[in-house]
Automatic annotation (TrEMBL):
<keyword id="KW-0227">DNA damage</keyword>
<feature type="compositionally biased region" description="Basic residues">
    <location>
        <begin position="351"/>
        <end position="367"/>
    </location>
</feature>
<dbReference type="InterPro" id="IPR012319">
    <property type="entry name" value="FPG_cat"/>
</dbReference>
<dbReference type="InterPro" id="IPR035937">
    <property type="entry name" value="FPG_N"/>
</dbReference>
<comment type="similarity">
    <text>Belongs to the FPG family.</text>
</comment>
<dbReference type="InterPro" id="IPR020629">
    <property type="entry name" value="FPG_Glyclase"/>
</dbReference>
<keyword id="KW-0234">DNA repair</keyword>
<comment type="subunit">
    <text>Monomer.</text>
</comment>
<keyword id="KW-0238">DNA-binding</keyword>
<dbReference type="GO" id="GO:0140078">
    <property type="term" value="F:class I DNA-(apurinic or apyrimidinic site) endonuclease activity"/>
</dbReference>
<dbReference type="GO" id="GO:0005634">
    <property type="term" value="C:nucleus"/>
</dbReference>
<keyword id="KW-0456">Lyase</keyword>
<dbReference type="GO" id="GO:0006284">
    <property type="term" value="P:base-excision repair"/>
</dbReference>
<dbReference type="InterPro" id="IPR010979">
    <property type="entry name" value="Ribosomal_uS13-like_H2TH"/>
</dbReference>
<dbReference type="Pfam" id="PF21218">
    <property type="entry name" value="Fpg-like_C"/>
</dbReference>
<keyword id="KW-0378">Hydrolase</keyword>
<feature type="domain" description="Formamidopyrimidine-DNA glycosylase catalytic">
    <location>
        <begin position="2"/>
        <end position="129"/>
    </location>
</feature>
Length: 444
């Protein structure tokens, strides 16, 4: 996203070409996502007829001071940019609008026509910027919440060192915190840490005095050098790590040293492990390229990816219901695979339940058969007792034996009866007892 140098170049251009000129007319886009807190018609009527006194900036925010409030303010977001007709400005390549397009561009969110034929347009391709109308931009968020501007309000070395000693977080995350120092973004943080030879995960409070002094100097030098070339990245010094941030891991080198990519402060971070060493305890964050790729699903993190990871984009680039994102499309094969696995897993309990039901049914059937057999055995036992009582009522005489086989049957019957009294009958014993009883009835 545009950082301090890019926004400062836009401020200087507006100051040079617009200050002292009266606004003749303006046109605001009907885009409430960008035109924030004010209607397009209200914004247009509030600016028309007023004179621009100056262009001001703090951090990555810019606003115009007019001869009377309210004032228009611009938060550049990821792709915000200022274009002045007929004036060549260095273009942040993600914000760049083709010079062959119509004027004003179709991406224009606020078009302003001033005296002497001067015209400028604020554009935003990805609709992540904010245009507001404020009575006093410096007294309300987001500008009121910013820390000292890295260019206009630099800390003194001692003040900078004392501030770092109070911060027990990774130095990269601290530099990205706009309430600590405003204007430093992802690429500037990587560059100043590389130039100062400080690991991006280094705990700020554990930095040595020499490292603090070096970092303080590098912040100033990197910003000033970027402004010298009009924030034109193609003219940045060759020894800057900036030029390696969009290369693939394993193929990124600076001054012959390998550049690696990790996640620090929630952003893709380029650094040189051979030169950027830890001093004392390191941050609790995990410097792992595998972790980074696992989170993003991207094979090659680089400058483009690091820019896309801005917190503002993460919040606004989520696909709405009914929409498909390119990232989501890439992950569809995996999602389909996950769905298949879930379906298989959901089937397994069903199969298990079915097997359990079959087993339970089998047990139930066996139990039913056992109960039926026990019932038959009880009937046989009752019949045997009845016969004994009847014989006893006749004088206790036993029935006359007709043959040797009858003696065997009676002996077998008596033995079975005794066995049934001593212990539960087995299935075979029960069957034999039933047969004996049947034969006895037949003889009678």
């Amino acid at each position: 996203m545009p950082e301090l140098p890019e926004v400062e170049v836009a401020r200087r251009a507006l100051q040079e070409h617009c200050a002292g000129r009266r606004i003749l007319r303006c046109s605001a886009a009907d885009d409430p996502k960008v035109i924030d807190g004010v209607s397009p018609s209200q914004l247009e009527s509030s600016l028309a007829g007023k004179t621009v006194l100056a262009a001001a900036r703090k951090g990555k925010n810019l606003w115009l001071r007019l001869d009377s409030p309210p004032f228009p303010s611009f938060q550049f977001g990821m792709t915000g940019a200022v274009y002045i007709k007929g004036v060549e400005l260095s273009k942040y390549k993600r914000s760049a609008v083709s010079p062959t397009e119509e004027w004003p561009s179709k991406y224009s969110k606020l078009f302003v026509e001033l005296e002497d034929g001067v015209e400028f347009s604020f554009t935003d391709k990805r609709r992540l910027a904010k245009v507001r109308l404020l009575e006093d931009p410096e007294s309300v968020p987001p500008i009121s919440e910013l820390g000292p501007d890295a260019l206009f309000e630099p800390m003194q070395v001692d003040e900078f060192m004392n501030a770092l000693r109070k911060k027990k977080i990774a130095i990269k995350a601290l530099l990205l915190d706009q309430s600590f120092i405003s204007g430093i973004g992802n690429w500037i943080a990587d560059e100043v840490l590389y130039q100062a030879r400080i690991h991006p995960m280094q705990i700020a409070a554990n930095l040595s005095k020499e490292s603090c002094e070096t970092l303080h100097r590098c912040i100033k030098e990197v910003i000033e050098k970027a402004l010298e070339v009009g924030a034109d990245s193609s003219q940045f010094p060759e020894h800057w790590i900036y030029h390696s941030r969009d290369k693939k891991p394993g193929k990124a080198f600076v001054e012959g040293k390998r550049v690696e990519f990790i996640t620090a402060g929630g952003r893709t971070t380029a650094f040189v492990p051979e030169l950027q060493k830890f001093e004392g305890p390191q941050s609790n964050e995990i410097p792992s390229t595998k972790l980074k790729r696992a989170k993003t699903g991207k094979k090659f993190p680089g400058k483009q990816e690091s820019d896309d990871e801005d917190a503002e984009v993460n919040e606004n680039s989520k696909p709405k219901s009914g929409q498909k994102s390119s990232k989501g499309t890439k992950k569809q094969p995996k999602k389909a695979r996950d769905d298949d696995e879930e379906e298989e897993e959901s089937e397994k309990p069903a199969k298990g339940a079915r097997g359990k039901q079959v087993k339970m049914a089998s047990k139930k059937k066996t139990k039913s058969n056992t109960e039926e057999s026990d019932s038959e055995d009880e009937e046989v036992n009752e019949s045997s007792k009845f016969e004994r009582r009847r014989n006893s009522s006749k004088g206790g005489k036993k029935p006359k034996k007709t043959s040797e086989s009858d003696d065997d049957d009676d002996d077998e019957e008596e033995e079975l009866e005794k066995t049934s009294k001593r212990q539960p009958l087995t299935k075979g014993a029960k069957s034999n007892q039933a047969s004996a009883q049947q034969r006895k009835k037949q003889r009678k």
